[in-house]
Amino acid sequence: MLLLLLLSVVFRSYVHIFLLVWSLIFGIVAAHGILSKDSLLPNILFMYTRKYKNEKEDELSLMKAMCTVCGQRKCPRHRPELNILAFQPWNGLDIPERVDKSLGELLDLVFKEFIYSWFKDLSEDEEFVDELRTNIRFITAVLLRRAKKIDVPELLVGKISKAALSHLDAYLQTKRRVPVGTDLQTATLEYLGPNLHVVMQSRKMELEYLRRLVESLFPFILQPHALHSKCMCSLVREVGAGSLLQLAMNTIADPDIVNNMILIFLDDSPPPVAVKIPSKPVPFLTDFSESLSRNKSCLHLELEDIMNQSELLYTFMQFMKREAAVSVLQFCLACDDFNGRILNPDLTDNDLQELHSMAKDLYKNYCAPTALDKILFDNEVVEQLKVIVEGPFQNVVKLRTSPPLFKAYEHAYNLLEKTFLPLFHQSDDYYRMLCGDRCVSQVVKVGTKSEMKSNLTPLLQKDMARLTW
């Protein structure tokens, strides 16, 4: 471009020729900027590739940066690890009901074959299995989200076809070189030499490679707290490598399966007409991940127990304040108070006006788009509540039977129970409530064993005296 500009200045007498060249260049640039990717015209500027905006990627990026509590992007108040996809990747991931049911049945068979076959001899407590179900749901949701981002034509043409043709070329080269009657499989492996993949050396090497492959996926498919559990990582690694991936590779490598798939892809007959009505979309693996056990330990407090006891509620509220999510708890408490009053059959006009004012406050503080303590509710629920609170005060009685307030309360309650209650069970506030404050005194880790024993004796006596008291 600079050279052309310099020539245009030097040879001013031939400006009409350079004007044609400049017009051609500007025309190409304008066409490249205006024409879409679906244009039938070829791309003349082959050295440049235009980057198109991926709407699905933008949606996923927005959900990754969206707060689970208030729905704001890059929320400065709540914990960043509580965003929707990091904590609940199945959020907003709906699949047909029949597909969800079939997938759940498949996973139940996997659990029956590879989990219950040995776990039933160890314990009858289903808590471990419930935690494993939650992690399996997390893994499959992450894998499904990533699978939806795969460019299938690019995968088939760019990678699978090249690998298949390379494999076919090695086979044909070997067949042409070796004499008739030679074992072509062994000869092909010898022909590949150092280019032979490590999994082709032996079944043991194949299994070890799959184990390392599954381990490399852990940071992407496991929950953050599960990465620190050696038992969970070992179990997922062995089941994923030995029971799933290896069996899948054996199935894919079966010649009958490969030939059948080729015949299906090359068959030009139209697909059969769908007879069944398409099933409605449902949340991903909700029924599969339902808890099968209930923790009966007296030290394990349920949310219902906390909400009904003032001392426990105070401790939980202090924890929620530190998490900057006390608005969720306040909304549930306000809804309980509102529902207790609106169910009174003998309501006067003054009572209805007070209830209407309470409903306005609930909407203004927790549902309105400009609310400081906004909670992420469904848009339909917010719109229905808005219609009621902006209407006459007599309409407040609709909240007795209409679903918007019940759905909002259920969403906030589930947020407390499934997101913040497990965090509360692992917090210092919870253990301080059960066991008291930590001992401030520290033992100096130097000196002889006798000195260590003499240093520990006063602490033990103090603890024994406190327990006796």
Automatic annotation (TrEMBL):
It comes from the Eukaryota. Residues 96-270 form the PXA domain. One of its GO terms (biological process) is autophagosome maturation. Pfam families: PXA, RGS. Keywords: Membrane, Transmembrane, Transmembrane helix. GO terms for cellular component: late endosome. SUPFAM superfamilies: Regulator of G-protein signaling, RGS. GO terms for molecular function: phosphatidylinositol binding. The chain crosses the membrane at residues 14-35. Residues 302-434 form the RGS domain. PANTHER family: SORTING NEXIN, SORTING NEXIN-14. This is SNX14. It comes from Acanthosepion pharaonis (Pharaoh cuttlefish).
